[in-house]
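Quick sanity check, Ribonuclease G:
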Amino acid sequence: MSEELLINISPMESRVAVLDNGILGEIYIERHHKLGLVGNIYLGTVVRVLPGMQAAFVDIGQSRTAFLHVNDMQREPRPVAEDKSKAATNIKKDNSDNSATLETSTDSLAVTPPVVSAQSTEVVPVSKTLIQHRLHESQRILVQVTKDQLGSKGARLTTNISLPSRYLVYLPSSDHIGISQRIDGEEERTRLKTELSSLMQTVNLKGGLIARTAAERVPVDKLEEDIYYLLQLWRTICARRQEINHHQSSELIYQELSLPLRSIRDLVHADTEKVIIDNTQVYEQVRYFAKEFVPFIYDKIVHYTAEQSLFDVHRVEDDLRDALKRRVDLKSGGYLIIDQTEAMTTIDVNTGSFVGGRSLEDTVYKTNLEATHAIARQLRLRNLGGIIILDFIDMLEQQHKDDVLESLQAQLTQDYAKTKITQVSELGLVEMTRKRTRESLGQQLCEPCSTCQGRGFVKTAETVCFEIFREIMRCARTYNSPKKFTVVAHAAVIDLLLTSESDTVADLEYLLGRVITFDVENLYTQEQYDIVLD
C-alpha cells in the first residue's frame, strides 16, 4: 500500500492529510490560535483534591482546570511489615511526602522509580493509595497532558512523563523496557530489548524505554542517537523546572512539536512514497528536521508551488465535506448512518439499493463485508473515539458473522489508535472502543446548530401553529384589555396560519371576540414566535 502525506499551511491553520492509495485516510488539523495540548509538560498547581472521585483538578494555565486521576499517577513502594499497624504508620509517613513531584536532579536525569525487592518491599498499585494522602491544595506538581480539552471537559493529565522520539519513547518514572505490539517477530523483539538495555547502561540513563513500531530493524547506532536526544531533552526539562518562579501558579515546561514536524516523526514509514508541502518556510523546517531524525524520507519531501490548492488537487476538500455528513454511501448501493452523541457513537449499516443476486443472506453478507472497510476508514478519518456501537445487518450463518468480524479487525490494524472489539451480540450489534486523545473531526470543525440546539430536528410548522393558538387563548384569559393579537413568526408558520389553519383562526377570533393579525419576521427560526397584545 502506497502512502502520501500532504501538508497544507495557511495563516490560520496547519493541516496534514494522509492518503492511502490516493484516498484520504486521516486528517490532522491544528488551529494556530488554539494549539493542541497533548504531550505538553506543565508545572501546575493543585486547585482541588476530590477524595470521593480519587482525583484532583490542576491549574495548568488553561481556561479550564485539568483533571488528574489517581490511576494516572506514579506508583509508590511500600514496606512489607509483619506488624500491620507499623506498616500502616509507615505508609502514612511516606504519603505525606511530595511523592507526585518529579526528582529534578540533572545527575540522575529521571524520576526515581520504585525499588522492588522480593524481601523488603512490594510495589503498591496507585488504586490502593488514596489521593488525599499524596496531594494537597496549592501543591506544585509536574504533569503531562494525555488528552486535549473535549467539549466541557478539561484536559486529562498524568504524572508519568513520556518523551517520544522517532524510534523510542523515554519514560523517566519507569524502569521498564517495552516493545511495540506491532513488532511481531520474537527475534526482533528480543534484539531490541537486549540492545536498549545495553545502551541504557552505557549512557547511564535512568528510567524506562519503549521501542516504537518505527524501531523495527533499525541499527543500534540510530537507537543510540535517539537515546542521546532524549537524554538531552530530559536535561533541558529538568533545568527549565529548576528556573521556574515559585510565585507563578503554572508554567509550560515543554511544548510538543508543531503539527508538520510531529507528522514527520510519527506518521512516515517505509511505505510513505512522498511528503508534499505547500509552504516554503515549513518545507525548509521539515527538510532540516528530517535530515536530522528521519533521513530516509529526506529525498521524498517535495515543495508544491502550483497555483491550485494542494488539497483541491487531491480532492481532500471534497472528502472533508463528506466526512461531516451522517450518511456514507457504499459502492454497492448500501450506506452507513453515523451518529455521534455525548455517550457513544452509533454506526448503522443498510443495504440501500443493493439487491444482490443469489439470496438475502448473501446480499446481507456482502454488504456487511463492504461496510467493514468503510467503517474502519471513517473511524480514522473522523477520529471517532470512546464507545462505538456497530449495527450490522442481521446474519444467520455463524461463518458469515466470523468473517465480518475478521475483516473488521484486519482493517483496524492500520489504525494508530488502540481499539478493542467484542463478538457479534444476539441483536447483531458489535461493541467496540477506540482510544480518544483529541476532539473528533466534527467537534473540531463544527458547533451545535443554533436553530435546533444540537437536536438535529425542529418542530413542524403545524406544531408551532397549535402552540400559538394555545398561547393566544392563555393570554385572552389572563389579560382582558387587549383588543387585538398580533402574531410575529417565521414565514412558514405564517403561511400555514393564513392557509390551512385559516378556519381555525376565524373560529378563534369569533370565540374570543378579538382580531388576530400576522407579521412575518425573517430573522426568527421556525420555532420562534411572539404574540403582541394591542
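Posting the structure with no commentary besides this: The mean pLDDT is 85.
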